[in-house]
Amino acid sequence: MCRSSDLRQAVLARNDDSAALLRSELAARGTVAVNLLSSPGSGKTALLEGELAAARERGVPVAALTADLATENDARRLARTGVPVQQILTGGLCHLEAVMLRGYLAGWLPPGTRVLFLENVGNLVCPAVYDLGESLRVTLASVTEGEDKPLKYPTAFGLAQVVLVTKTDLAAAVGFDEEAFLENVARVNPGVEVVFTSARDGRGTGALLERALAVQEGAVPHRPVLARTPEPAPAPVPVSAVGRVPTVHEHAHAHTHDHPAHGHDHAHTHDHTPHDHDHRHDHGSAAGAPHPHGAPVVDPL
Amino acid sequence: MHEMSIAAAVVEQVADAAVRHGATAVATVRLEVGELAGVVPEALAFCFALACAGTVLEGAALETLGVAALARCGPCAVEWRPGMPPDLLCPRCGGPDAVLLTGRELRVREVEWAGTVPSAPAPPS
Ligand SMILES: [Zn+2]
Fold first, then answer.
1. What integer pLDDT is reported at residue B124 of this predicted model?
2. Which of A203, A248, B37, B82 is the right S-S partner for A198, CB 3.0 to 4.6 Å?
3. Separation of B97 CA from ligand 1 center, angstroms?
4. Distance of alpha carbon A219 from the chain centroid
């Protein structure tokens, strides 16, 4: 009576699909989203105030969306910069998800916005797992949190495209060991840029805006090792085959087996026994492809 | 506690698959969880039981298949287990150009159906 199905289906497929769709929608509008991750109290709102003010001074159209468990204080602070700010009260949810975010952006994000800052819920665990359609992911740590923060939260720091240190004016007072911090960052995310800032003395203010604008103008952001998967370069997908070609992303995770200590040149091309190919696998690479699978309907951006 | 959201996503996917397969009950869900997936299996197991309540998965067992991380350096092709917290700098050349071969999986691998299963799977949707 018992039968089994080989699903091989990414648990976060729906979020990842929504994120990919959102990223392409934002790109079509010339907007780059920056996903900011941090612990509570790491100075994210103060940092963002500085970046928004810098954007306003330079006449760069930006917007900010801030996610909070329950209060609107952050949004009020940020709105004082005169930049469009949207508050999401997550009602206890510990992270933003792409579907939710798309819904909030629809009808709100002002046309012509070049950079959209997403202040994620203050938490370095849960938000790290969810792609929001950002083109630049930034993880913050204040000097008061200690040098080993990157080792305690390897997913958040390992997936960052920029690591940003806040409150550096306090570094001496709290005995922050900058060298040890940099070593720890390099261990979980070799090659990532680390930017030092202080909202109090203005150090590094505007640096984040500059990084985001560079990406908006076509610079390729850092690719963390943790985000690098072993598949070959994606081949162009013949139009006639779009419906059945699995995405590169899916297949990057599709084959897990013990790796013996020999070469792996063909290790990821083995054995495609027929299995339950859910159709969510099939359209991730086609920007704006219709979602046959019941993603919540929201107005197009 | 994003494990609750993840458990809900698993339940939703398996419930969808159950409809496609005409299954009325689920015996076991096998989930691959990479060492670096950012998910705590114990928390997930706890949330899974809650998320199954009142669905076709009610009473289903969750089997978590841990997947160890394995990295390979691009330039020198050496492979190593980065461990936890991961050390992703190449142990041979010290370079930053590795690729993660395994370790971030978060996938429903397989489902064992229980209850009434018709001989032929139901057509999709
Ligand atoms: Zn090497």
1. 55
2. A203
3. 7
4. 16
- Which SS3 state, helix, strand or coil, does residue B125 take? coil
- Enter the pTM of the model: 0.81
DSSP A296: P
**Helix or strand or coil: residue A15?**
helix
Cα–ligand 1 centroid distance for B75 (angstroms): 5
Contact B32, A256 (CB under 8 A): yes
Q: Are strands A32-37 and A85-89 parallel, antiparallel or unpaired?
A: unpaired
Q: Which of B30, B105, B38 is nearest to B64 (CA)?
A: B30
Specify which residues A137 forms β-bridges with: A35
Is residue A297 within 8 angstroms of chain B, CB to CB?
Answer: no
Q: Show Cβ contacts of residue A202 under 8 Å, excluding neighbours closer than 6 positions.
A: A50
Cα end-to-end distance, chain B, whole Å: 32
Q: Give one DSSP letter per residue of A169-202, joined into a string.
A: GGHHHHT--HHHHHHHHHHHSTT-EEEE--TTT-
Within 10 Å of residue B91's Cβ, how many Cβ atoms? 14
Place of tokens 């010290």: B94
Of the candidate ranges A70-84, A123-137, A229-243, A270-284, the one whose mean pLDDT is the lowest: A270-284
What CATH class is the domain A12-226? Answer: alpha beta
Going by their DSSP bridges, the two strands B106-114 and B25-34 should be labelled as antiparallel
Cα–Cα distance, B9 to A10 (Å, whole number): 10
Cα distance from B46 to chain A (closest Cα, Å)? Answer: 16
For B112, the token pair is 């064992």
Among candidate residues B62, B1, B4, the one with its CA nearest the CA of residue B32: B62
Q: Is the CB of B114 less than 8 angstroms away from the CB of A1? A: yes
Q: What is the mean pLDDT of chain A?
A: 81
Bridge partners of residue B100, in order along the sequence: B71
Following DSSP, what letter does each residue of B4-66 receive, concatenated? HHHHHHHHHHHHHHHHHHT-SEEEEEEEEEETTSS--HHHHHHHHHHHHTTSTTTT-EEEEEE
- Chain-wide mean pLDDT for chain B? 91
